Amino acid sequence: MPKLQTVRGTHDIMGDKARTFRFIQQTFQQVAMRFGHQEISTPIFEFTEVFKRTLGETSDVVSKEMYSFEDRGGESLTLRPEYTAGIARAFISNGLQQSLPCKFFGYGPMFRYERPQKGRMRQFHQIDLEILGVPEPQADIEVLAIAVTLLTELDLMDDITLELNSLGDRESRDAYRDALVVYFTAHKDKLSKDSLARLEKNPMRILDSKDEGDRVLVADAPRISDYYNDATKVFFDEVRAGLDALGISYTINERLVRGLDYYSHTAFEFITKKLGAQGTVLAGGRYDALIEMMGGPATAGIGWAGGMERLAELISPDLVPEEIRPIAIIPIGADCQIEALKLAQSLRASGFTVDMSYRGNMGKRMKRANKAKAVAAILIGEDELKRGLVTVKNFDEGSQTEVALDQITDHLSHYR
RNA sequence: GCGGGUGUAGCUCAGUUGGUUAGAGCGCCAGAUUGUGAUUCUGGAAGUCGCCGGUUCAAUCCCGGUCACUCGCCCCA
């Protein structure tokens, strides 16, 4: 038997954390559905190719972070490191081009083999939202509006800012990328060694560097907005006009880059300063090339993913609904056990939350009920049963009354 | 993958300048109270001092390694 602890970078989710997660999920679900999105749940693992082809061989996620393994049939499978590739695959597998546009939402665990830190684990949970088949900027606006609505309902917008950029269409992006390579190659000797590697793999990442020397270079680097073609400009202007119309504030960050290969046009991150190095709480962008890259029909797409652990860190505990307080049923003496059982069952059928302890004398059971934060206890003893009633004790007030068994549901109705 | 910090009871932490049975608060269990919780009082259980090795007459303490957590880098939600 190995050590009895969770695998590095994984956690048990229980208690307050489970409640917070549920709250995030439910709020997200409601918001997404209000915008007309439908739930989709894709498998937790896919053929390795699904991620390899879409994320780009050079991305860190593919090159060093995937949990890949061979199953007994010799297939290479991978625990999903993100949601979008799976959704794109589902879109193709199910022939959903017949029913465009597709507006999806989903949530669940993701897996990346990384060095754990606060807000970064090997199994973590994301909420995810996508719109497929809408090349118009309206989709960008809607997707951002959903994110803002969610974060507002989670009461988080005071701590979070939206940073926005356009990576341009392919033509603009390629032109800019080339200009960057020329510029940074000319200053190769001054680049940090991390950035030297980025120059080969993903030059735009240099813009994001935290190295001071790099930052000096970046300050004079070509600006992406100078390389936008007309189509890109028009598209980005429409997105911004939509956000302005909705009163959504944002800051343009021309150095905001996305890590994964398939992005174009709109890219965005919702960022907080409260989480240290892992400040990105929700992020996404447009990926019009993705589905075609996977071998499907050319289909536009845009979406985002939010980190539940990171959101949970930020949410005020006061906002998270308390667990429903149960009504405790306490039989007094073995003879009343069956009656208590029947009463519990019928109250549950009527929608009450009912807790019944398994052993102990009355004092023990009262203690247990109190610890379970029961609103009230129903005491069933032989005396009461003979008279066809039970004793109901209110834990908050300490008061108690006798209630006829056939009126118990009415009497308790405000606890439902 | 790289660098720094931390690791003592379920939790939060004290402590031992290397020396007999390692402590507190909270929590847990039991009793005071076998038809009444939350309050109070009394008692109890719970630790290979993260793990492995080294130095030493002796290591929870010093040294090395390792694992986990944590902060930063890389990267990302």
Explain what the structure shows.
This protein is of the alpha+beta class and 416 residues long. It has 2 domains: 16-169 and 229-319, BirA Bifunctional Protein, domain 2 (2-Layer Sandwich); 327-415, Rossmann fold. The protein has helices at residues 16-34, 48-55, 60-64, 84-93, 137-153, 170-186, 193-201, 212-219, 230-245, 290-293, 308-314, 337-349, 362-371, 382-386, 408-412, and strands at residues 38-39, 45-47, 67-70, 76-79, 102-111, 123-132, 160-166, 251-252, 264-272, 280-286, 301-307, 327-331, 354-356, 376-380, 389-394, 400-404. Strands 1-5-6-11-10-9-7-8 form an 8-stranded mixed sheet. Strands 13-12-14-15-16 form a 5-stranded mixed sheet, with helices on both faces. A hairpin with a 5-residue loop joins strand 15 (389-394) and strand 16 (400-404). The longest helix is centred in the N-terminal third of the chain and has 19 residues, at 16-34. The chain binds one RNA strand of 77 nucleotides through helix 3, strand 6, strand 10, strand 11 and helix 11.
Q: Count the helices. How many?
A: 15
Which class of secondary structure composition applies to the elements?
alpha+beta
Strand arrangement, major sheet: 1-5-6-11-10-9-7-8
Determine Rg (CA atoms, Å): 28 Å
Low-confidence stretches: none
Q: What is the CATH fold-level name of the largest domain? A: BirA Bifunctional Protein, domain 2
Task: Tell me about the largest β-sheet.
Answer: 8 strands, mixed
* Count of domains: 2
Average pLDDT for all residues: 89
The CATH architecture of the largest domain comes to: 2-Layer Sandwich
Shape: elongated
Strand content: 15-25%
> What is the count of β-strands?
16
Proportion of helical residues: 25-40%
What is the CATH level 1 assignment of the largest domain?
Alpha Beta
Give the name of the CATH superfamily of the largest domain. Bira Bifunctional Protein, Domain 2
Give the N-to-C terminal Cα separation: 46 Å
